Amino acid sequence: MTKTVLSFLFVIGFALVHLSSKYLSFVNDSLRNKFLSFAGGVAVSYVFLHLLPDLGHYQQKVGERLNHGIGHYVEDHIYLIAMLGLALFYGLERLVKNSKKKQGAQSNSEEVPVSSGVFWVHMASFFLYNAVIGYLLIREEYETKWGMFFFFLALSIHFVANDHGLRKDHKQKYDKYGRALLTAAIIIGWGIGAITVLHELIVSILVALLAGGIILNVLKEELPDDQESSYISFITGLAGFSILMMLV
Fold this sequence. Notes:
Layout: H1 3-20, H2 29-66, H3 77-107, H4 116-139, H5 145-170, H6 172-195, H7 200-222, H8 231-247
């Protein structure tokens, strides 16, 4: 099976994960929190064993192009961009929380969605986030087909946790518009990768921003509050996925 065909099957898998993740809400709280903790372990393993080492590879490419002029005085450019990605997604989360507080104060209720403007800004950021993942699915340089499978597995679990958080923030708006939009983003990203190759510098910057976003989302969503999380589930996801990646 060619890389293109396999990546197409996986992008369809990503789409199905997004479209079906809403049904996690019907699982009881205990099992859901254990799953989110497990997802956190898998995502942390993926970030530290694959994504961060990948940034070192991209740092070489970016460094060759930015190591002139003012860029000469800035070391570790790619990690600065990843830090910017984390700060950007943290800023979006603060925007969402502040909007919920404002809406809640106006309606005398805490269980309210954010304003429409904040919703679309949030969706636009995650649209880019998902499009980059779709692009990397077909254009990432995997050592083996197993590498592509682990990329799919880790991010599928991550998507379920992300969807849970977005649905919690945006209520029915997310199921009505956001879910379809983010599903389309993955397919569009894959389609761009199938027909063209973006400049390495652009891809490096996008991957760094994605890395920062994933790290923030892992800390925010996939590691629930202390009283709700399951450390055993987290360690099981962390250790299990780490062993699988190292074996393959």
